[in-house]
Q: What sequence folds into this?
């Protein structure tokens, strides 16, 4: 594919970046749920605000990296500041909030607000480093002959990161504020150190030419009607990516809470870990399939796997609750299919988008990618999930407060959205075949 140094940089930056994103995407929800009794709407608002921050950041910083013709400084400095912003979460605690604002203040409500604001700050640095710079760098360092394999590695990293986070979190009692303090210090320090290491292992892309357009012209380049018309395949792919992402975000913000609280699976990590390992292997191997048969043909198996996972997780909640490994098989199989479909789908869309991105213009198009991957799904998906869970059952906590319990209806809603993508995909393939004949 490329030299050994490139491979090392790809694995390290992708894995550590995804560990940070897993903590944000899957555990910030748990954090404000457990520490500040956040509602479904609070969680939805946090995801939506972060999605907006990620999109704006990627648009502006991606265009700036094109304008300057540089990727490496944005990656390395960005990771360092990303780590610092994660470290700041160690100080978001009820006792610290009460000491600052006084005992009479509603510390829980203030805590939710602070987390949402700080999440946006963290997202700014993370998106600058990862979404804008790293993804543009990866596009520039690969070509059509090896992007499937590169995306197979890149797209399996979220699952590996989930496994790393799950394994690391097993030793912590997440009902205790002290556990979260240690978690944020460890994750923040790791991201910061990778930023420093990047100065030694990341090669700048020599092919990137300094953009002759003005900065704001570069920002707006991908939104021009003439550009959209010229690169129709790219924009159709982005549209499909939006629908795919909405389906994922309907359930993802509530997934861990659903497993732990609704299904009563205190050992959900032990059930999901084997599924994650297998799904990661499937995703890595699937990258070669993408290179061999093409991204368009490779999408349908991903959709089928994802849909099958949704069906199992929706139909069998009663069996999942039951005792014994055999009766927990549906959550294992459903999770394996869901995660395999999710990550192979990400690899398919990622490879196709990189293939259709004009050469030496990767930075300015990262904003469009993040709109499709993060903004629209991050706003629409959680809102659908919150609407589905509007009248969800509640549980009384030990301190007398109430928390909502996500239901399996989130998987049915995700399946309905995925059906829209399936219909659009089949229509596209039919029209394409008719046009070629």
A:
């Amino acid at each position: 594919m490329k030299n050994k140094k490139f491979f090392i940089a790809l694995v390290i930056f992708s894995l550590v970046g995804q560990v940070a994103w897993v903590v944000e995407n899957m555990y910030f929800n748990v954090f404000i749920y457990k520490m500040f009794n956040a509602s479904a709407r609070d969680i939805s608002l946090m995801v939506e605000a972060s999605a907006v921050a990620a999109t704006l950041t990627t648009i502006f910083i991606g265009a700036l990296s094109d304008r300057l013709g540089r990727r490496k400084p944005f990656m390395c400095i960005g990771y360092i500041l990303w780590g610092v912003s994660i470290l700041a979460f160690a100080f978001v605690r009820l006792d610290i909030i009460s000491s600052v604002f006084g005992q009479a203040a509603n510390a829980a409500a203030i805590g939710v607000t602070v987390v949402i604001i700080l999440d946006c700050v963290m997202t700014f640095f993370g998106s600058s480093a990862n979404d804008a710079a790293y993804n543009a760098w990866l596009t520039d360092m690969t070509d059509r002959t090896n992007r499937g394999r590169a995306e197979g590695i890149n797209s399996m990293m979220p699952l590996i990161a989930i496994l790393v986070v799950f394994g690391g979190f097993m030793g912590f009692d997440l009902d205790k504020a002290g556990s979260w303090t240690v978690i944020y210090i460890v994750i923040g320090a790791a991201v910061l150190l990778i930023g420093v290491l990047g100065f030694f292992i990341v090669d700048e892309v020599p092919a990137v030419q300094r953009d002759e357009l003005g900065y704001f012209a570069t920002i707006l380049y991908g939104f021009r009607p003439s550009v959209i018309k010229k690169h129709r395949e790219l924009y159709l792919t982005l549209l499909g990516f939006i629908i795919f992402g909405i389906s994922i975000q309907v359930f993802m913000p509530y997934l861990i809470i659903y497993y732990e609280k609704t299904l009563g699976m205190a050992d959900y990590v032990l059930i999901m870990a084997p599924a994650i390992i297998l799904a990661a292997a499937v995703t890595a191997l699937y990258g070669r399939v993408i290179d061999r048969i093409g991204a368009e043909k490779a999408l349908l198996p991903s959709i089928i796997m994802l849909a099958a996972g949704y069906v199992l997780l929706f139909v069998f909640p009663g069996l999942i609750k039951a005792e014994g490994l055999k009766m927990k098989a549906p959550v294992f199989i459903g999770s394996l299919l869901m995660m395999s479909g999710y990550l192979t789908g990400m690899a398919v869309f990622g490879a196709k988008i990189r293939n259709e991105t004009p050469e030496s213009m990767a930075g300015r198009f990262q904003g469009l990618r993040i709109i499709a991957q993060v903004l629209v799904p991050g706003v629409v998906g959680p809102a659908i999930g919150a609407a589905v869970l509007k009248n969800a059952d509640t549980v009384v906590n030990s301190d007398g407060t109430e928390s909502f319990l996500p239901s399996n209806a989130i998987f049915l809603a995700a399946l309905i959205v995925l059906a829209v993508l399936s219909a659009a995909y089949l229509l596209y393939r039919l029209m394409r075949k008719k046009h070629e004949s």
Q: What stands out?
A: The first strand starts at residue 394 and ends at 396. The chain has 17 helices and two strands. The radius of gyration is 21 Å. The chain has one domain: 4-436.
